[in-house]
C-alpha cells in the first residue's frame, strides 16, 4: 500500500489566504493572516529582463504545478484542507498524457530521497547534468547551495545552474521534427523564450536577426500575408484599416408571405373564439344545465390557455452565424495581435452527474471526451465535472476518460472527426471513410477503435474492480485488527470487532467521498469536499506530437494539448440544505471562478455531448457581436438520440424547440431549459446588463425608457437593489462592503468578477460598439495553478460557504423549485438581460431521453411540478419588473399556468362519455350555428398548424404527436403536479423526485427495448379511466339508440364524434399499455374497469336518462 502523505492547509477562517507556491510550505498555518496580492505583468525587453531569478521562480512554479496536478485535495467544515499526493488514480497501465493527474517523473536517484524528478510539458524528466543523473529539485538546490556544484552521479560540476536550460536540450529531438515554418521563430517568440531561460539578455539575437520584418510602432509584423502567402515580406498594413466591418451574426426574418397570414389567422381565431363563447353563454342547454355549465367553463379556460400559448408566437425569427468572420477577428494577425494568437475569451464547461447507477459512467466519460475534443482554443477551455454523489466509480471513470483522451483528441483533430463522442462515432450508420483523404486514416481509425473497445471494457469493469480491491483491503485490515486483539489477549474485543467496510482508491488509500457501504462522513449526504485536477492547464504554445513507430499515429502536425479537466464533489453535511442540482451548479461557478475564471459558462447534462465540434464558436458569435454584452445566455435546442422512429411519446419535443423557442427569440429571448446553454458569468452573478432599460412596449418592440438608477445606493435598502456592473469598483467603498456579503467572503472570488466582466466584452472594433475591450487583450498566457488556488476552491465549495449570502437567492442558479433552470432564466430576463436561440445547421448537442412511458410521465411530472411552484412563488410573471417585455411576460405566465389546464381537460374528456350515458349533449341541438362555429374553430386551428409547420420546419406527424402527448400528459402528470404543488403550498409537504435513468447504450440487440417495458404508476389511472369510460359510454349510447323507439341519432353522432376525438389522442398511451406483445397487464383492466363502472353507475343513479317510450322521434340533422 502506498503511503499517504497529505499536505495540510488550515481553514480556520473562510477568508482567502496566500500560500507559498512550493509544496513543502503547505504545512504552515496561515489561517489568521490576510494578504493583498498585486500582479504586474512587464514585458521582457533589453532594458527590462526580470528573469535573473529564473531558477528560483520558473522551476519552483513548475514544481508547484506538478504538485497540484498530482494531488487530491479534500476539506470542508471543521476539517483542514489536505493535499494527498497520488502515485496513481486508476489501476490500468495505459499511456498517460503529460497533463494527466498522477505523480509523474522518475524517482530521485539520491540515496534516501524518494521524491519525483521535475518533468516538462511533454512529461520528460528534466535533468541538470549530461550524464542523465535523476535528481529532484530539492536535492539539486542542496547540491548548488550547500555543496560544490558537483553532480552526485558523474562527480562533475554542473555547467549551468539553471535547470530550465536542460529542459530545452531534452526537447531538441522533438524540435527537429517540427515543420519548417515553426522552426523559423519570429523575433517576438524568440525573445519570449530567451527571457525565460537566461538571466542575462542576449544582445546577439537582436544584432543578427536579419529576416525580421518590422511593422509600425513596436509590433513585429507577421511574415505571412493576410491572404495566406508566405513571401517573407509581410502583409500590407493598410489592409487592416481598409477592411469593412462585418457582423458575426445576422437575423433572418420569417417570410411575410407566411408570417402575415399567420398573424391574421391568430386574430381571426381570437374573434371566432370570442363569438363562439358569447353564443354558448347566451344559449344554455335547458335539458342538461350541469353539462352546459361544465363545458362552457372548460371552453373559456381553453380559450385563455390558447391565448397565453399563441400570443408569444407573433414574432418568430431565425438567426445565422459567420464563423469565418469570427476567425478573422479573433485568430488572424492584426495590428494589436501580430502573431495571430487566439483572442477569444475562455469558456468553463460544467458537466453534472449525481448517481453512477442511473447515469452510466461510460455515458458521462464520453461526454467529457466530446468536450475535450471541441474545436476551440485549448488554452481557453476548462471542463469541470460535478459528482454530487461523491462516488469513486465516477472519479475513476473520469480518470480513464482523461487517459483515453491522449489518443482520441489528437485523432479527432487530425482527421476532423464528427461527432467527437467515440460511442456515437463508431456506431453511426454511414460510411466512416467518406470524404477522408489522408492515407493513414484507415490505420488510425482501426487503432483508435481497438483502444476504445479496451477503454469500454475498463470502464464497464470498474464496479467489479473497485469492489474486489475494497474487499481485499478491508479483509487485510480486519486480519490486522484480529491479530492485534489476540496479541494483547482481548478475545472479547476480537469477537465484537466491527471494521468499517471502506472504499479504497487505486493507490491503497481511503476514498474521501461516498463509500459503497455508507459510514459516518462517507455517505451521499455526509462527505468532505473533493477536488482533483485530472488534466492540468495546458501550455500556452501549441505542442506538436511525434512519430514513434509504425503502430502509432503520426501526430507531428497535430496539437496534442488537452483542456483542463477538474473533478469536483462539493461538501455535504447533515443539517445543510444541498439544493440538489442548483446547489451543485453554484458550487462549480465559485470553484471555476477561483481556478480558471472563464467569462462564459456552458452547462451540459452528463448524457448531452457536443455533436458539433464548432458549437462553442457558434455561440460565441452572439456573445462577441455588437450588442452581445447585453446577452445573458445563448440557448441551443435539445436534440435526442435513441428515440423510436414513430416518436410515440413526443420525446423529440420539436414543437417546443422549433416553434415556441424560435418565437421567443423574437421577443426578449428563449427560456433556459437546463442544458446546452452558454451563460455570461456576470449575468449569473446577478448584475444588471449594460444600458439597462425599462420596457413600456406591449409587443415585440415598443418604446423603451431608460431607468433612472443611481450607482450609489444607501445601505438601508441595498438588499432590495440590483447591482450594476460599474458598481464593482475599488473606489466604491460602500458597494465593496456589500458585495462580499452577497458573494461570500472569498476575496479570490470577488476579485475575479471584474476580470470576467472585462474579458467577456466584445471587441471594440466598431465606432458604434459600446462597452468593448481592445483587440489582443486576451492573448496573454494563463497563470499556472498553485496549491493556494486549489485550497481556496475547496473552501468555496464547502457546505457552509453559502450561509448568509445571496447564492441561490439572487446569484447563480436559483433555489426553491425543481425546475431551477426556468427560474434562473426568468430572473435574468427580469433584470433586463436578453437571450438568444442558436439553431445550428449541424446539431450542436445531442442527448438521450426516456422512451419508456412511465419514465416519460415522471419527467413531465417533474417539469409540471416546477411550473406550479413558480406560479405560487414570487417568480410568477405577474410580478415581473418593467424591464421585461409584455409578450415575454405572457410566455412566462403560461409556463406557470399550463399545468392547471389538467382540471378542465380531464372534465372535458369525460363530457362525451357522460353525454352518451345520460342521453344529453353540451348544446340543446346540433343546429347550424353551432356547426359553423365548430367548423371555423377547427379550420383556423388546422391552418395555424400548417403555417407553423411552414415557418418552423417541423413535420405534420411531429405536430400531431405533440397534440397527442399534450392530452396524455395533461390528464395524468399535470394533474398530479397541481395536487403536489397545492400540498406544498398549503401543508408545506416537500416534493422529492428520483433521477431519470439514462441508457448506457450497451443493449445492441434491441435499441428500443425500454419502449416496451411496462412499469405501473398511479399516473396512469386518470387516462385509463377516461378511455374505459368513453368506450362504455359509446357502447351504452349505441345500444340505447338502436333499441329505442325514437332514436336520437344527432345526439349520438355528436357524442361519438367527441369520444373518438378523445380516444384518438390517447392512442399512443393505449399502445404503450400493450407492451411488446400487445398484451395488456391485468392491473390495467382491474383499475380501469372498477373506475369506469363506478363512474358510470354513479352518474346513471344521479341523473338517469330520459325515457325511451316517446313516439315520433327521428334523426334530425340541421
Automatic annotation (TrEMBL):
Q: Which residues bind UDP-alpha-D-glucose?
A: 352, 358-359, 388, 580
Binding-site list for Mn(2+): 581, 605
Annotated GO biological process: cell wall organization; cellulose biosynthetic process; response to cold
Q: How does it sit in the membrane?
A: Multi-pass membrane protein
**Is the keyword Transferase in the record?**
yes
**Which subcellular locations apply to this protein?**
Golgi apparatus membrane
Single Gene Ontology MF annotation: mannan synthase activity
> Which Gene3D superfamilies does the protein's record reference?
Spore Coat Polysaccharide Biosynthesis Protein SpsA, Chain A, Zinc/RING finger domain, C3HC4 (zinc finger)
Keywords attached to this entry:
Cell wall biogenesis/degradation, Glycosyltransferase, Golgi apparatus, Membrane, Transferase, Transmembrane, Transmembrane helix
The active site is formed by: 388, 821
A cellular component term, taken from the record's GO annotations: Golgi membrane
- Kindly name one Pfam family recorded for this protein: zf-RING_4
The record lists the membrane-crossing segments as 252-277, 289-308, 891-914, 926-947, 1024-1046, 1052-1070, 1082-1102
Please give the family membership noted in the entry. Answer: Belongs to the glycosyltransferase 2 family. Plant cellulose synthase-like D subfamily.
Its protein name is Cellulose synthase-like protein D3
Source organism (scientific name): Rubus argutus
